[in-house]
Amino acid sequence: MLDTIALILVIIGGLNWGSIGIFQFDIVAWLFGGQSALISRIVYILVGLASVWSISLLFRDRENHDHDHDSYDSPEHYTHIPHT
């Protein structure tokens, strides 16, 4: 559940940064009364924390992927075809 919330917040942050980069328009600031408004700052902080949390997703995904991949590399998962 926390991973999903973090992903949603990172997506919101990415869309906001894309809007800033392309249109020079800060959606969060527009919605909540400016960049210095308390609610805007809370959103920015939550997005920042979510991005830090999301770093762990990279490592967990890699560990799971490596583990799954290793199980397919074991000899019993392959059919032996003799060379002729």
What can you see in these coordinates?
The protein has helices at residues 2-23, 27-32, 38-72. The chain is elongated and about 75 Å long. The mean pLDDT is 85. It has 3 helices and no strands. The chain is an all-alpha fold and 84 residues long. It has one domain (2-66).
Proportion of beta-strand residues: under 5%
Average residue-wise pLDDT: 85
Span from first to last CA? 54 Å
Proportion of residues in helical segments: over 70%
The biggest beta sheet, please? none
**Rg on CA atoms, Å:** 22 Å
Order of helices and strands: HHH
- Count of DSSP H/I helices: 3
Based on the structure, what is the oligomeric state of the protein chains? single chain
Decide which structural class fits the backbone: mainly alpha
Protein name: DUF378 domain-containing protein
Transmembrane segments: 7-32, 38-59
Region (Disordered): 65-84
Organism: Candidatus Gallacutalibacter pullicola
Concise account of the structure shown:
By secondary structure, the chain is mainly α. It has helices at residues 2-23, 27-32, 38-72. It has one domain (2-66).
List keywords for this structure.
84 residues, mainly alpha, 75% helix
Layout of helices and strands, plus pairs?
Elements: H1 2-23, H2 27-32, H3 38-72
Helix pairs in contact: 1-3
